[in-house]
TrEMBL record:
Monomer. GO terms for molecular function: GTP binding; GTPase activity; magnesium ion binding. This is GTPase Obg. PROSITE patterns: G_OBG, GTP1_OBG, OBG, OCT. It comes from the Bacteria. Keywords: Cytoplasm, GTP-binding, Hydrolase, Magnesium, Metal-binding, Nucleotide-binding. One of its GO terms (biological process) is ribosome biogenesis. GO terms for cellular component: cytoplasm. Residues 439-450, 461-480 have a biased composition (Basic and acidic residues). Residues 60-84, 438-480 are annotated as: Disordered. An essential GTPase which binds GTP, GDP and possibly (p)ppGpp with moderate affinity, with high nucleotide exchange rates and a fairly low GTP hydrolysis rate. Plays a role in control of the cell cycle, stress response, ribosome biogenesis and in those bacteria that undergo differentiation, in morphogenesis control. It comes from Actinacidiphila yanglinensis.
Amino acid sequence: MTTFVDRVELHVAAGNGGHGCASVHREKFKPLGGPDGGNGGRGGDVILVVDQDVTTLLDYHHSPHRKATNGKPGEGGNRSGKDGVDLVLPVPDGTVVQDRHGNVLADLVGQGTQYIAGQGGRGGLGNAALASARRKAPGFALLGVPGQARDIVLELKTVADVALVGYPSAGKSSLISVLSAAKPKIADYPFTTLVPNLGVVHAGSTVYTIADVPGLIPGASQGRGLGLEFLRHVERCSVLVHVLDTATLESDRDPVTDLDVIEAELRAYGGGLEDRPRLVVLNKIDVPDGQDLAEMIRPELEARGYQVFEVSAVSHAGLKELSFALAGIVAETRAARPAEESTRVVIRPQAVDDAGFTVEYDGELYRVRGEKPERWVRQTDFTNDEAVGYLADRLNRLGVEDELVKAGAKAGDGVAIGPEDEAVVFDWEPSLAAGAEMLGRRGEDHRFDAPRPAASRRRDRQAEHDEAAEAYDEFHPFGG
Ligand SMILES: Nc1nc2c(ncn2[C@@H]2O[C@H](COP(=O)(O)OP(=O)(O)OP(=O)(O)O)[C@@H](O)[C@H]2O)c(=O)[nH]1
Ligand SMILES: [Mg+2]
């Protein structure tokens, strides 16, 4: 028996960004060349991609830790570090990605559909990129940002148009074997099928997939037999087919009661199957008693509103009508579905509010939260005063200082940037605010101002340059 794994917990880690390099160009007779430290490379992403050739999540069950490669650090001579390599993980069609709390992050349907499960860290800028008129030879570079590490749960929900449900040995797998080219295991003992089988049916110009699930018995919703767990594989189907056995030898069963039992279990499962169109297949009419029984109960089933098909997986009677009827329902459902579902989509993790940040006083510290300030902190080498100064300038330009003032922060108050457990905490020096004043605030147009002293104009140029470097960092998020 092949192993079938349809749920795994996966730990992904994207690659870290490479550090930027701080270096000064050296040449004979030119002892003080310019800064020439290159940018770090970006870390590789971890990307899930639907691959129709992959049918189980078994690989990830065996090795659930996956990491993309890191970006290389920048080097002197303006050499950028190499980017890390993306790690592409093939997953079966119909893989649902969830976080550890069961929130669905992505539903991967259709060959080639991608999901970035972990985003690589951006590379740090080298000192060459950080140089400016005022900061001619920066003695620092930005650090690479760590790649995103996440725990996710992958769950497989087979994508089939038609789902066969019924008691064990009703002939579900037999029907798949004669309607399609698939060759599932068939035997006369219950629970032959332990995992869903999938087949492809060609009916006229319509091609559709058909799947069975392990047989259901009374109490399946309480876990009897193989339980209802496998029903999630048919949640996406367009039509449910009740396969009823007209030739069962069990004295307490008949097709109509079987139907009631299975319907009760489906109701207990829910999962959106309640309102799915369904039809009834009376199987095994090649057996003489079966044919008689089928004819006898057909009116009652039709009175209940079911379309009824009498078939035999052995003699192939009635199969053509059945497969064309199913094709009709599938085609109808497809036509009603929005078109974009069939196109290839790339799903990225939800973008964080990029522009914003918040300042909150928690009774002890002023907490600054926001994508940019938090990243900037991670990019900062706190052993280097110049790098720390650069961070202060960046925070200033974003308006963090202003918001701290508004929130009531005073000299010497503690300020924390980042999430609780890994925040960087420092004592606030309002002198930075004065600096911000002189650098000019965003949004003001100095062309309407009276001429100002040269020093002030120089500072404006500096601010402009820093904003340009910032923009460079934002638009080349991966260094290089
Ligand atoms: N005479 C007759 N026997 C059939 C027919 N269809 C299936 N069978 C037999 O019924 C038995 C069960 O068939 P399967 O296809 O394995 O049934 P299943 O519904 O997939 O059963 P589980 O996988 O155990 O849930 C096998 O011995 C089949 O040969 C039919 O149309 N006529
Ligand atoms: Mg079977």
